[in-house]
Amino acid sequence: MSEVAPKTIGNPASWVFQSLRSASHGTADAIDEIRSEDSATPQVRTLDLSDISAALRDGWQDFKAARSDAMFLVFIYPLIGIAMIMSGFHLAVLPLLLPMVMGFAIVGPAAAIGLYEMSRRREAGESASWMSAFAVLRSPAFASILMLAFYLAALFVIWIMVAQAIFAATLGPDAPSSLSSFATDVFTTGPGWTMMIIGTTTGAILAYAALAISIVSFPLLLDRHVGLPVAVATSLEVMRKNRFVCLCWGLLVGAALLIGSVPLFAGLIFVVPLLGHATWHFYRRAVT
Questions:
Q1: Can you tell me the distance from the alpha carbon of 80 to that of 58, in angstroms, rounded to the nearest whole number?
Q2: pLDDT tens across 10-45, in order?
Q3: Burial class (CB in 10 A: 0-12, 13-18, 19+), 53
Q4: What is the pLDDT of residues 218-248, one digit of tens each?
Q5: Cis ω on the peptide bond leading into residue 173 (within 30° of 0)?
Q6: Phi (first) and psi of residue 140, to 5 degrees
Q7: Angle CA(65)–CA(67)–CA(68) in degrees, nearest 5?
Q8: Where do the structural domains in the chain lie, given as residue ranges?
């Protein structure tokens, strides 16, 4: 009878060495996945407005199939919105309340990554529960996804800083004395209209930049091992080739998020899953 080798705990030094070696291999794999040796850009289709309606229709089917799981997955977003409203009662933060709400459209593509995974699994005939959405954490592309998410987060921070600067240069720098006086200043004074025009234009430019680099990047990274540069290049090509359709998609997403935010952000429990699932199907229609 063969002897079984005794199990030993090992000394701390060897455990640390093995952990560092494993981490170094994981880091190297992540770097290889980010850059990817395959530099070929996937084929991009020409889209029309019917592709938007079809993506929404397919996204609705995904939402109905995993309604409770998807709603549970995004339940935190209304809580974040309510926290922003509560902070808005502090008059110093009040001018930034609307920019923070609208800025959610910038980071939205990253926030819906779990929903893309659910749609991908359902399309492949696999189980698609809220737990399966966390499989993204084990994806080889997770480092690329995280890096792209950091970029969108940086755009969001820049937008908030710019919004603060625009307020300081027009109606500021002092905080509003009350909500009613702030609303009056915004809609009935020249500086208020200047703030809205400059702020809206700046926000639109940043939102366009976020849309251009992320409209299909996140789903593509989940679906194929193309690397971050190729994913972003493909997203830019989708925007270049289908600018009108992509802008309509972006306006639809922004309007839906705004409508979902009105009733104390409760509507986001329905809007975010629908848009997340639909984004996956928009990607499938845009990239071959």
A1: 28
A2: 454 554 445 445 434 444 455 555 555 555 678 999
A3: exposed
A4: 999 988 878 899 999 999 999 999 999 999 9
A5: yes
A6: -60, -25
A7: 130
A8: 56-286
